[in-house]
Specification:
By secondary structure, the protein is mainly alpha-helical. It has one domain. Helices cover about 60% and strands about 5% of the residues. It contains 20 helices and 6 strands. A two-stranded antiparallel sheet has the order 1-4. Strand 5 and strand 6 form a beta hairpin. Helix 15 packs antiparallel against helix 17. The longest helix has about 30 residues. It is globular, with a radius of gyration of 26 Å. The relative contact order is 0.12.
């Protein structure tokens, strides 16, 4: 790694960690109802919707409310795509989206995946981008946060039958956490050059000249002159290009803040209208992690022991720093095949990189985006080196718990923490407990479901795709890399990330339906068991700390937690990784 890469990584982590305590404290105050900056607006909304603020729900009712809320979101997003040709704010006369693509996109944005099998600026109207996609960026992020808040209440409460009110939690997260930060963030982005308008697309003349000015000749083939003796010329011809316009900044802000990742433009954060400057690039990377990191402190504060939150954050940080350094290092290595053709190896692997940012910023962005289930990209992951591309793949396959999505990363990591204390309990021959709650058969059943559902979706989905013709038809690169493209697609979908090895042609009926199924069950197949764990823990009494209690706030537990994430989370995928990026890397070495 270059010194620039180390400085960038160090600066990023330093600024991120400075935000953890203040934002984590604020989120805890809001979710516990102690701080209501717009209390009158909140109460008005409850009256209009018939919600009683003081009426709480058991885990089953809470889960039903979350499911109902998101099913309605899918229907709304699907309908807006299918009807956009007849709705306003459609300056380019975009056609209605096909049924299978609309199905995929609706589930994608509702599940916080934001997988995009379409080109945003060439497919979606302004109304669809704002009312369907940007709105779900807020609501899907809110869903992840309220689920982890319910789980935290399960740890914090004892002998309780409820885990909160889903409608109140969703309102507070959206109104007091996501919305104000996104507004300030959008204003900052416009100051950097991100566009925000409702103008028609612009037809502009580029600097590229197709025909230069040439002398005008008479019938005899002699140069012609005007009456002043100046030579007459045929005019030069330049190419033209259509520049997309639209309300980009408002969607870009919540796209990053809510770890959504769906770009207004097809080129996502590599597009200068979405990510125009080095400062905007740095802030975009920071905004992806800022809420997931802060929620760790929120967790510690709400359970009454901030050391617990710092321990979880430490485990996430250690894993991320190692993986981010690996991604930047591998991309700094030259492609030996290109070196043989005369490309300077000192430049590293610049294929697929945005030259405004280079290798360090691209590698770091890729690691952040895939660690946080965001899916935004400022480089083409399909063009990464085999091992460089394996880093984003592995970060997703760990279960999106290395910071992870807003809310989903923390509740995924807490599921692994439950598994860690269970394993430690088996080692010493006593009933495991975590934060004063005994971990018993029911919790372990739900934990097992939550951990295994995504590997099942990824591996079965990949197997189906490589066995049937419709799946293989989308592969752009045969062999090991083609397998990696399919594996990446299902890993991204089931873990609700949304990034892609874009060499795979996935906007087909086969992939739209199969990936849509993976996204839905990858999201709610984890949320339901997590809420079940929350309800079970909330009903339990708190146990007193004894000499046999495993401390869960020190270096030993951090090490144990990292080990469980790596062993339990990653081992499911080792054979698949061997068939894809590992073989591709060995083939690259053999071709030297």
């Amino acid at each position: 790694m270059s010194s620039h890469a180390w400085i960038m990584l160090g600066l990023f982590m330093a600024v991120l960690l400075l935000t953890v305590k203040p934002l984590g404290t604020y989120i805890a105050e809001v979710m516990e109802g102690r701080f209501k900056p717009c209390g009158s607006i909140e109460r008005t909304l409850y009256r209009l919707c018939g919600i009683r603020e003081d009426e709480e729900m058991g885990w089953l009712k809470y889960a039903f409310a979350i499911l109902l809320f998101n099913v309605l979101g899918v229907l709304a997003v699907y309908a807006l795509q299918r009807l956009q040709a007849w709705l306003p704010l459609n300056p380019q006369a975009m056609a209605n989206v096909s049924p299978d693509s609309a199905f995929n996109t609706a589930i994608s944005f509702v599940s916080n995946t934001n997988w995009q099998g379409y080109g945003g600026e060439s497919t979606m109207s302004y109304l669809t981008q704002m009312l369907a996609l940007a709105v779900q960026n807020f609501l899907s992020a809110a869903t992840g946060i309220v689920v982890v808040i319910a789980l935290i209440r399960g740890f914090a409460r004892h002998a309780a039958a409820t885990v909160g009110n889903a409608w109140v939690d969703l309102t507070r997260v959206t109104l007091f956490v996501l919305l104000p930060i996104a507004i300030v963030y959008a204003v900052f982005l416009t100051s950097q050059g991100v566009i925000q308008n409702f103008a028609a697309y612009k037809e502009v003349t580029t600097l590229e000249v197709t025909h230069y000015a040439t002398p005008r000749l008479d019938p005899a083939g002699q140069p012609m002159k005007n009456d002043k003796g100046a030579a007459l010329t045929e005019p030069a011809e330049s190419t033209t290009q259509t520049l997309a316009m639209g309300p980009v900044a408002s969607q870009e802000a919540i796209k990053m803040l809510g770890t959504n990742g769906g770009g207004f433009m097809n080129a996502n954060s590599a597009h200068p209208y979405e990510n125009p400057t080095p400062l905007s690039n740095f802030i975009q990377m920071l905004s992806i992690f800022v809420i997931p990191a802060a929620l760790c402190f929120t967790f510690g504060r709400m359970v009454g022991d901030t050391r617990q939150g710092w321990a979880v954050l430490a485990a996430m940080t250690i894993m991320f720093v190692v993986m981010a350094a690996a991604a930047m290092y591998f991309e700094q290595q030259a492609n030996p095949l290109l070196t043989q053709l005369g490309v300077d190896p000192v430049s590293g692997n610049m294929e697929g990189k945005e030259t405004r940012f280079g290798i360090a910023e691209s590698g770091l962005f890729a690691a952040i985006s895939t660690a946080a289930s965001c899916g935004a990209v400022n480089a083409l992951h399909d063009s990464f080196t085999p091992l460089g591309g394996m880093v984003p793949l592995v970060l997703m396959q760990l279960g999106e718990v290395v910071f992870g999505g807003v809310g989903s990363g923390l509740y995924g990591m807490l599921v692994f923490a439950i598994m860690a204390v269970f394993i430690s309990g088996l080692m010493i021959g006593r009933t495991p407990e975590y934060l004063g709650k005994k971990i018993e058969t029911y919790e372990m059943k739900m934990t097992s479901i939550a951990i295994l559902v995504t590997p099942l979706l990824v591996l079965v989905g990949t197997a189906i795709a490589v066995m049937v013709g419709d799946g293989r038809a989308g592969i752009a690169n045969p062999g090991a890399h083609g397998f990696s493209e399919i594996l990446y697609a299902f890993t991204s979908a089931a873990n609700n990330n949304g990034s892609a090895f874009a060499g795979l042609s996935a906007n087909t009926t086969f992939y739209n339906i199969l990936l849509g199924i993976a996204m839905w069950f990858g999201r709610f197949g984890v949320i339901i068991p997590v809420l079940a764990i929350a309800g079970s823990l909330a009903a339990k009494k708190r146990l007193a700390v004894t000499e046999g209690t495993l401390p869960t706030h020190g270096p030993l537990f951090v090490t144990l937690l990292i080990g469980v994430v790596l062993l339990v989370g990653l081992l499911n995928y080792v054979p698949a990784l061997a068939l894809g990026p590992v073989i591709e890397h060995l083939m690259l070495i053999a071709a030297r």
